[in-house]
Each structure stands twice: as C-alpha cells, then as structure tokens.
Amino acid sequence: MKDTLAEAVKRYALPFESDADFAPLLEAIGDAKIVLLGEASHGTSEFYKVRAKLSKLLIEQKGFSAIAVEGDWPSAQQVNRFIKGYGKQVLTVHEVLSAFSRWPTWMWANEEIAALINWLQIHNSLKAPEQKVGFYGIDLYSLWESIDEIIRYLTETNPTGADLELAKKAFSCFEPFNGMPEHYAISTAHFSQACIEEVSNLLASIRSHAKHYDDEQESELNLKVNALVAKNAEDYYRAMLQDNAHSWNIRDEHMVEALHEIRNHHGEDTKIIVWEHNTHIGDARATTMQDDGMLNVGQLLREQHKKEEVFAIGFGTHRGTVIAAEKWGLPFDSIDVPPARQHSWEDLLHKAGAYDKLYVFNDTNRDVFSGWVGHRAIGVVYNPEFEAFGNYVPSQIGKRYDAFIYLDQTKALTPIQVKEVVNDI
C-alpha cells in the first residue's frame, strides 16, 4: 500500500545537521550541468548560508565555474570583476555590493553574500584565468543601467563605431522617461512601437560584431547581455500593465536566455549554479502557475536539456523571521514568520519532527511526493496577517523539485546599508 504524503515525509527524511549530510545530495546531483538553488523568501539567512555552502562544494568537488543570481547584470558585474581581479580599482566587498542599489537592496547587499564573495575572491586568486569562478546577474530590470554600460564601454573602445550610434539612439528613446519603468509602461499604451526597433537593432548589431569585443575581461559577454537586457526589459515593461502572466513569462524567458549566453561564452561544458526564488527554479508545470499560463526558469531548462543535466533544489522553513517590507519601496524590516499553515508542505515537515531535514526525489519515491499540497512562498513584500490568502502555492513537490532542504526555524539575513533607488515594477 502506497504511503500517504504525511507518511512519506517521515519515511524518506534524511538528516541535515552537518557538512557530511550534503553527501546524498551531491551524489544525486551527479553530473548535472545546471543546479538550481531555490529559496522560499528573499530575506532568510539560512537559505543564503546553505546555498553558499553547497555552491562551494559544487565548485570544489564537481567543477562548477559560474553562479548566476536573480539580480541585475550591471550590479553583478561589479562583483564578477572584483572576484576575478579585473581592473585596478581597490575596493572592499561592502563597497562592491553597494552596486546593488535598486530596491530591494537586501537581496544581494547582505553579510551572507559578502562572506561568499570574499571566499570566491580567495578561491579565484589561486586559479588560472580560465578556471576562475564567475558571478552573474540574470534579471532584466536594469534597462537604463545596461544601456549606460554599453555606451560607456563603446565610447572608450570604439567611439566611431556603428554600435555606439545605435546605443545612443536607444538611450535617446528611453531618456524622456527618467529611468522610471512605470512611465515607459504607461507610454506604450499610446505608442505601440515605442522603443522596440532601437533595442532590437542594438542587440542584433552587437551580436554580429561580437568578435570585435572579445578580450580577457569578458567584454563581449558583458555587451551581449546588456543588449539582451535592453531588448527584453523593453518587452517586459510594455507588457507589465497589460498581462501579469505574459510579463512574468518574458522575465523568466530572459533569465534562461542570459544563462545560455553565459554558457555559450564559456563553453557548452560550463557548469552553472543558479540562485533564485522557488517560484522561478521549481518546475511551474507542477504548480497552479500553469493554470494561469505561466512558465518559469525551472520548466524551461528541463524542457531544453536532458533530464540528468538539470537538478532543482527547493528550500523551505516552518517559522522564524525574515527581511521584507510591508509595501513595495518601503524600508525593510525584520518580520516575524508565523508557523506554517495547517496541512501545508511546511506543516507536514514540521510535524514529522521539528528538525532540519533533506529530501531527495527519485524514481523510487517521486510519485508519493506528487500529491497536491500548499507550499509557502514569501516575496520582498510580506504581510503575515494575509499569509493564508496569498503565500501558498499549490504544488506537486516531487515533480516541482529534484530535492528539498527543510530548515525548521530560520532568522532574517543581515542587510548591508546602501543608498536605495526605488522603481515601481
């Protein structure tokens, strides 16, 4: 007789108390080339620390050479340059992380990430250039910053080139909106073509001239992805006020495109670690997101690659504290996370024993973990009073992930104070 979900939670739980307990997870990852590390919130210390530890093990033991995060490409490039030793400017890790100035800054400007960045810098200092680990942002919110980066680089290196003229045209198109995405989004309701042609031409031209920008500091990759951001962000902001599902899909499709650009640049055998929220890395087909016409990174990568090449790990907690804000753009705070809703995935895990545990889903047990259950998700905006109405995503856990790390009680991460820019996106 098949176990119930509650019985399976008890039967298949693996201890997760020390570094040795990563062993079954590393074995299950096998020769995967893309490992997706989720999080149930953007503000939980333990999620960041465990992902950092696992990332180090994947780098040291399995040859992973890139970390891609749910953050802006230009800001993450400051980190990438820092850990790879590009340029002559001497900065502290806190100064480097201050590049993440877009609200919510705490996602990447925090002490937990600072510790990982310091480790990566030391690790890379002992490696040949082609063996250094990279750090990349694959989100698309940096439309204005990305165009600025393109203009700055081309002005310094190819001031008479056609690509610079195209970049200036794109900048001129977006300049009237003062870096405010919502202003551009509103304008597209009246001017359907808006800036589509300018950013499309810019991306096509940079791709066709890519060999001209090849150097030892990844300038070719930097230009390509910044141009890709400009094109896809324009599409995203145009869709933002019209269709939530469509704009969501544009964003996740962009993140997959950016991942492919990174892997293409470094070679098809490049192994990459992806840090994003569970809602991005857990297969959308195993959630009610699909009912709303939404897809995500985890789904797309599984569809595009062989089964053994992609491995997705979800994260969750029962209670604790988290960094979040009550409304978009407001100052962050440490907010209490109440005990998980009764009969939810996190509630079942807690009732199976109030301790940290690990689950690996395989051909033996995946089906028994594939019943529908509410699975908590906390965003950058969080109000515990309304949690039961919007923070639980019906999911088939065994199909959504390949493994799951449960941390029974967690605490808020430690932000680094930086000057924030707030956009309504």
Automatic annotation (TrEMBL):
<dbReference type="InterPro" id="IPR007815">
    <property type="entry name" value="Emycin_Estase"/>
</dbReference>
<protein>
    <submittedName>
        <fullName>Erythromycin esterase family protein</fullName>
    </submittedName>
</protein>
<dbReference type="InterPro" id="IPR052036">
    <property type="entry name" value="Hydrolase/PRTase-associated"/>
</dbReference>
<dbReference type="InterPro" id="IPR014622">
    <property type="entry name" value="UCP036794_erythomycin"/>
</dbReference>
<dbReference type="Pfam" id="PF05139">
    <property type="entry name" value="Erythro_esteras"/>
</dbReference>
